[in-house]
Amino acid sequence: MPLFLTFIFYLLTNLMPYKKLHAKIKKSVRATNLLEDDEHSRFRVNNPRYRTVLIENIPFIFTCDEKNKLVCRKNYSLIIKGDTIAEVLPSQKVTGRNFDLIYDAGRRGGIVVTPGLINAHAHPPMYLLRSAMMLDEGESVDETIAAMPLWERAMTEEDYALAAVGDLTEEQKSGITTTLSHFAAFAPIEAAARATKQNTINAVSVASNTHPQNSPRLIREILEKHGDDLEARLAMAIHYVYRADDKILEEVKALSEEYNLLLTCHMAESEGVARKCVERHGSREVATLERSGLLNSRTIVSHAVHINEREIEKLIENKVGIVHLPTSNVIHKSGTFPLWKFFDLEKLSSVALGTDSVVSKSRLDLLTEAYQARLTHIYSRTVKFGTLFKMMTVNGARVLNMPDRGKVLPGLKADLAFWKLKDRGFIPFDEKNPMSLLGNLITHGGRTVRDLMINGRFVIKGRRHQLIDESKLLETLQEKHMQMRRRVKKEK
Ligand SMILES: [Zn+2]
Fold first, then answer.
1. According to the model, what pLDDT value does residue 135 have?
2. CATH hierarchy code of domain 43-115+411-461
3. At the N or C end, where does the chain have fewer CB atoms within 10 A?
4. Are 55 and 78 contacting, i.e. CB atoms less than 8 angstroms apart?
5. Residue 418 C-alpha to ligand 1 middle, in angstroms?
6. pLDDT tens digits, residue range 430-476?
């Protein structure tokens, strides 16, 4: 294709106005006719456009403190102003009731509060592919990667956006408030972040498996055109290091420094991709990133299965963020992440968890992923529940360069997950050792939240999404999925 045609093609496929896309998906799946709070509700709303919120009488809050020590606060209350936690204090110290919204976390058996969980690796538009891949029928990760472009070509930008809404809202139901999305199209993720209010990093691929026309130039164009008007934080992605040539890596470094942009890539997911990097660059992935000046705390690598001891030391020394995806690694028979090597060197503080997409893990939550991490590595040693909790919260915040998230502390963003205490996933527990609740939360698997707050706003109330009509969303996704299947069949 002549150069100018390639350019026009990627303008059309990548710069479709996200506002138009947002308006379109809003029309098809926005929540309407929300029921008034029933008489049992824990909410007392004095001003529907609330800015000040009191969350009172919380039986248990689990969080890390300023020094990243895991603590459990008993019978505490929170005061929220705007999008920020203003105070965390014992319930008896709260004076005054002059708040726009008061949430009684002590009623009807009570609520356990944790920070909103942080998902450091996802591909939200692939949500439409649930059931499209034979996940457990013997395919290796290399075969799945090779099959992917055919499916993704059969999806439209609107499909991507709706699928991303499906993915992000499923994550929200399981307590996730922050997601790093790694994908090749920019607008669908921006539109989905607007529609769901998920705190999102939109890492747009500059060297993609499915969108070969993408390049670092796309990032510059998005920044120039929309820089000041983005809901999601823009970042860069590289599918695998071997997909990028030296020139791309050079431009990625320049962009990363100029705009303080994060970079994410899959790393050493199989022996095959590690080898391909040597074929292209004459060096393995860690060495190639180092030579390109990209081995630093703005870089996040996922999987990191087939890496050696010296490479692990390099990643740690240079404060590179690591995302562990145990379910994906098992499903695709990729190998086992060297978790204990990271643990012995730095207690896993640079290791977060991710969901990957439904092609690798059908249930998009982190609690089951944390449990999978525990089971995967249990023959060597046991990953403690506290460590798993950190991987889902503070480690995620560190890896994604978000020091203002991941804890329930004054001055941090009000991202909170509210878990019903009188629930089979919690009870019975040891009242003398409330940490046993945390073990129950992880091992029971697949809990959903009762309420969810992101940036000081309730996105889920009484298990009901406040922005998206779930019933309409599921109907729409089913219809779009079958349309996609028909297009794939034609192309085959
Ligand atoms: Zn991935």
1. 45
2. 2.30.40.10
3. C
4. yes
5. 28
6. 999 999 999 999 999 889 999 999 999 999 999 999 999 999 999 99
